[in-house]
Design a protein that fits this description.
Layout: H1 2-89, E1 92-98, E2 101-107, H2 111-117, E3 122-129, E4 133-137, E5 151-152, E6 156-160, E7 164-168, E8 172-173, E9 179-184, H3 187-194, E10 199-205
Antiparallel strand pairs: 1-2, 1-10, 2-9, 3-4, 3-10, 4-7, 5-8, 6-7, 6-9
Length: about 210
């Protein structure tokens, strides 16, 4: 009887020990599994963070590139604008050659003047009218922007209608409309050389 009890007790102890061993084994496996999952999660977060940093860096590079391009474009625009302003402020100088003597004139910046100087050099036989102007009807019509100046000044260069080039050598009041082209620089010398009657004048761009 005692032997049977001992055997039973031994079997129970063995079963308990096996249960403990199995339980520890299962526990260790769960711990390992949790550790692996934790490492994978950390890797995932690390990769995500790395991706975020890279994406952010790419965006910053793109923005920086766009900013540089905008700065370059702005500088080009400013440079181009400055050139245009300089061209607009630059005087248009021409020569009027009368009796082999050269007189300079300053022309305005407008479309009519641009069309006129595109015809230079040209030599015109200019008729005298009213003892105050020399005129010639050009072969081509020009763009007009006429107004009534009320008073003409000696040395004025104007366009009457759309093709009549007029150079005035006397001052007077007027009710006619003209497109203003410019003015002779040395008025006294020019007027003195023109004299009365018809005359030939050569128009050319000054060097």
């Amino acid at each position: 009887m005692k032997k049977k009890q001992i055997v039973i007790i031994c079997i129970v102890i063995i079963i308990i020990l096996l249960a403990i061993v199995i339980g520890l084994s299962v526990f260790n496996q769960n711990e390992n599994l949790n550790e692996v999952n934790t490492q994978n999660t950390s890797v995932t977060y690390t990769n995500t963070n790395d991706a975020g940093v890279n994406e952010s860096q790419v965006l910053e590079d793109v923005e920086e590139s766009n900013t540089e391009n905008n700065i370059v474009n702005d500088e080009e625009t400013v440079t181009e604008g400055s050139k245009n302003m300089n061209n607009q402020n630059e005087e248009i100088k021409i020569n009027l050659i009368v009796n082999h003597k050269t007189f300079t004139a300053t022309l305005n910046h407008n479309e009519t003047v641009n069309e006129l100087i595109s015809m230079f050099p040209m030599t015109l036989h200019m008729s005298d009218l009213h003892a105050n102007e020399k005129y010639n009807y050009l072969s081509s019509s020009l763009t007009t922007n006429s107004n009534t100046p009320e008073r003409i000044h000696a040395g004025d260069i104007k366009l009457f209608g759309n093709n009549c080039l007029v150079v005035f050598y006397d001052s007077f009041s007027t009710s006619y409309s003209y497109t203003d082209l410019g003015k002779v620089d040395d008025v006294d010398g020019f007027v003195s050389e023109l004299g009365r009657g018809d005359i030939t004048i050569t128009f050319e761009l000054a060097n």
